[in-house]
Amino acid sequence: MSRQSRGPQRGKVYLVGAGPGDPELLTLKALRILQSASVVLHDELVPPEVLSLACQGATVRSVGKGCGRQTMTQEEINALMIAYAQDGWTVVRLKGGDPLIFGRAGEEIRALRESGVDFEIVPGVTAASVACASARITLTQRHVASSVVFLTGHHCSGAEPSWPALGPDVTAVVYMPGRDYMELAIRLGSAGLPHDTPCLLISRAAQPPEQMFLGNLGNLHQARGFPAPSILVAGQVAAAAAYNARAGAPPAAARSVT
Amino acid sequence: MSRQSRGPQRGKVYLVGAGPGDPELLTLKALRILQSASVVLHDELVPPEVLSLACQGATVRSVGKGCGRQTMTQEEINALMIAYAQDGWTVVRLKGGDPLIFGRAGEEIRALRESGVDFEIVPGVTAASVACASARITLTQRHVASSVVFLTGHHCSGAEPSWPALGPDVTAVVYMPGRDYMELAIRLGSAGLPHDTPCLLISRAAQPPEQMFLGNLGNLHQARGFPAPSILVAGQVAAAAAYNARAGAPPAAARSVT
């Protein structure tokens, strides 16, 4: 544990991406920093297997941020990590996936900057890559998907995020798609995706029991019982999930309806 | 080294993301597999520091894929990795960044599937996350950037990839932006980005000497001498790079013109 003395030595905050659950998808840098930190402030979705990698004696504290189960406000989280760092501690602010993609890192970066506390960002593997790796499909593909867009289904604040126009050769990935798949399909359709666009819904990617639903925009509403965290991949690349599932290891609740 | 005997035992291919250069940004899983593989077939951009992590005695072979310096065709690469696996070896196909984002993994997945060879995908940290972490900016931000789109400037095949329409609250990241920044700015403008959209060009993120140019779409053409690999982040989130650069560690050739 790197306890720096109070006074002349300065604390530091690391905004660290933990990847989406599987401890093996941590980066070497994230592991090294996690093992040397005195304080770990983590989101609810970071699993115990990852938290157990923190050094013995570290203060490990959940700061919530599960939608609807907010235990602390963003301002309180900011104040807490800054206070620990100003007291000379090395602090890890641990987030699922990559902190820069739908991780509200912007607000924490701003608070850290304004406080004058030293900080560093350690990127992580984002959920879209992990989900697609698990389904053995790509996010981009020449002549099929020349770009990929990451969207979010909703904000915890309740405001509906705006979506850009989506063309037929875009892969659209919806983080936090919610549970109303009918509404989700309507929104994707309104954004420009055709009715027959292949859709792959993945729940708990790389965190067994993983579940997948493969369909299209028109029958996405038939998906049922997909516990969070889940992610939706919509686009031609998703169709390949039908034959790319690993032989002998089909997803538990896979349902191919294309 | 995991040399499996020829015959009844089966080889396997791992498509592995190496992250964008810094060996510490490998995942624990990527490192474990790299250390146990008998054969490593890598892209040109994977640095020696990463390759040196392969186990002693492994066959480590560049299969090229630097644009204009193609040493093998995609078909030859596919055939080679399949041949090694069919001969009973554990093969790592090592790519920079994340293999699923502009990594041509789709073509390799298809070839592997058709060959019947067992394979698995190990996702990596993509260049966009690494570049933004280095500049201490986010890719998404509530009320500012509600989505992020990954584009590519060009394909090695020479065909111009199509770009979706870009709105003002999208972060657009251009992988392989090329060197004609005037043309790049024109294309981004045609896709819908306003003239004054903040733009951050980052060269060799997390691979010193890193360089950054911060400007906007209107003066992006003034950027000079940015060696590959580089990446462009266009959108309101980029503006924060002006004041987020780490105190005492400004990027070598940063030039703030906003």
Distance between the termini of chain A: 52 Å
Overall pLDDT metric of chain A: 88
The count of DSSP E runs of length 2 or more, i.e. the number of strands of chain A, is 10
Q: What's the arrangement of strands in the largest beta sheet of chain A?
A: 3-2-4-1-5
Task: Name a few traits of the molecule.
homodimer; 7 helices; 5-stranded mixed β-sheet; alpha/beta; 5-stranded parallel β-sheet; 2 domains
What this model shows, in words?
- 2 copies of one chain form a homodimer.
- Chain A is 23% helix and 21% strand.
- Chain A is of the alpha/beta class.
- Chain A folds into 2 domains: 12-122, 3-Layer(aba) Sandwich (Cobalt-precorrin-4 Transmethylase, domain 1), CATH 3.40.1010.10; 127-244, Tetrapyrrole methylase, C-terminal domain (Methyltransferase, Cobalt-precorrin-4 Transmethylase, Domain 2), CATH 3.30.950.
- In chain A, strand 2 (39-42), helix 2 and strand 3 (59-62) form a beta-alpha-beta unit.
- Chain A is elongated and about 60 Å long.
- At the A-B interface, helix 1, helix 4, strand 5, helix 5 and strand 6 of A face helix 1, helix 4, strand 5, helix 5 and strand 6 of B.
